[in-house]
Amino acid sequence: MSKASLLKTAAFLIPLAGLLYFGITEDPYRPVESGEPAPDFSLPTLAGGSVELAQFQGKLVVLNFWATWCPPCVEEMPSLERLSRQGAERNLEVVTVSVDQDLSVLQDFIAQHELTLPVASDPQRQVAVLYGTYKYPESYIISPQGIVHDKMIGAIDWDETRIREHLFSLANGTQAAQF
C-alpha cells in the first residue's frame, strides 16, 4: 500500500472512529428524562448518617437540588419544608441535595431556617452530575416504583393547591393531570 493511500485511509478511519466513540458513549451531563429510572445514590446527611434513594422505594420522592447561595432555592425552601412535614403522612418523602461547598454555611442556614427535612451534602456535585443537574433549584418527582415522573427547573411554590393535589395523587397511586 502506498503512503498516499495509507494517508487517505487514515483520514477516513480516524474521524469515523471518533463518530463511533461519541455515538456509543453516553453524555455524563445528559439530564435524566421523565420515564427513566431514577439513578440511585448514597450521600451523607447533615443530621448524620446517609440517605439513599433506594430506601424510599414504594414512596413518592421529591428530590430537590439546591444551594444556600441560590436566591430561588432559598425562596422555595419554606414551602418545601412544609411539604416534607405534610407528605410524611401521605407516602411522600422530600429529599434535598445541597451542592454547597462550605458545610458551616449550610449548617447555619439549616439552623436559622429550622429545617427538619433531609439535607444531603453533595459538594463535589457527583449526584447532581448523575442527574444532569446544573441549574438550581431543580426538582425531580420520582414515582414509588423509582421512575422519574416529572422534572422541574426553578423555584416552585410547593404550597400551591394544584401542585399538592398532583403530588398527593401520585403518592397514593391515583395520577392527576400534569401541572
Report on the architecture of this protein.
- The protein has helices at residues 3-24, 71-87, 103-112, 126-131, 161-171; strands at residues 42-44, 50-52, 60-66, 92-98, 119-121, 138-142, 148-153.
- The protein is of the alpha/beta class and 179 residues long.
- The chain has a single domain, classed as Glutaredoxin (3-Layer(aba) Sandwich), CATH 3.40.30.10.
- The strands form 2 sheets. Strands 5-4-3-6-7 form a 5-stranded mixed beta sheet, with helices on one face.
- The radius of gyration is 21 Å and the shape is globular.
Within CATH, the superfamily carries the name: Glutaredoxin
- The CATH topology turns out to be Glutaredoxin
Report the C-alpha radius of gyration, rounded. 21 Å
Please tell me the CATH architecture by its name. 3-Layer(aba) Sandwich
Distance between the termini: 64 Å
Provide the β-strand percentage band.
Answer: 15-25%
SSE sequence, one letter per element = HEEEHEHEHEEH
Mean pLDDT: 86
Summarize the main sheet.
5 strands, mixed
**Structural category:** alpha/beta
Task: State the shape.
Answer: globular
Helix content: 25-40%
Give the number of helices: 5
| CATH top level class name | Alpha Beta
Counting structural domains, the number is 1
